Amino acid sequence: MTCHTVAFRLVHPSGSTEERDFLTAGRELATIPGVERFEQLVQTSTKNNFAFGFSMEFADAAANEAYNQHPVHTAFAQKRWVSEVADFLELDYEPLA
């Protein structure tokens, strides 16, 4: 199992229509085959400057790679992520044995 998480901050004002549109569009990532336990998260701590997170799990590294190459993911990255995300941190975890 691989847990893929990305924490991010948008260029849009908090509570704006553009922010809501981005998050709504991000839900399409959950439809990609192999994505399990997709969650959209909001930051509640003041320990960092990231406002949101997307988290999902994959059965294995192959499913994660298939997600990375899937047209829905690549379109979202090119059309939305690149221009609307101000900063992000991406993490991929696997359970310790």
Please characterize this protein's 3D structure.
- By secondary structure, the chain is an alpha+beta fold.
- It has a single domain, classed as Alpha-Beta Plaits (2-Layer Sandwich), CATH 3.30.70.
- Helix content is 34%, strand content 33%.
- The chain has a four-stranded antiparallel sheet.
- The relative contact order is 0.32.
Give me a quick take on this structure.
The protein is an alpha+beta fold. The protein is built from 3 helices and 4 strands, in the order βαββααβ.
Instruction: List SSEs in N-to-C order.
Output: EHEEHHE
From the N-terminal CA to the C-terminal CA, the straight-line distance is: 11 Å
**What Rg, in angstroms, do the CA atoms define?**
13 Å
Unreliable spans are: none
CATH fold node name = Alpha-Beta Plaits
Write down the overall geometry.
Answer: globular
CATH architecture: 2-Layer Sandwich
Tally of separate helices: 3
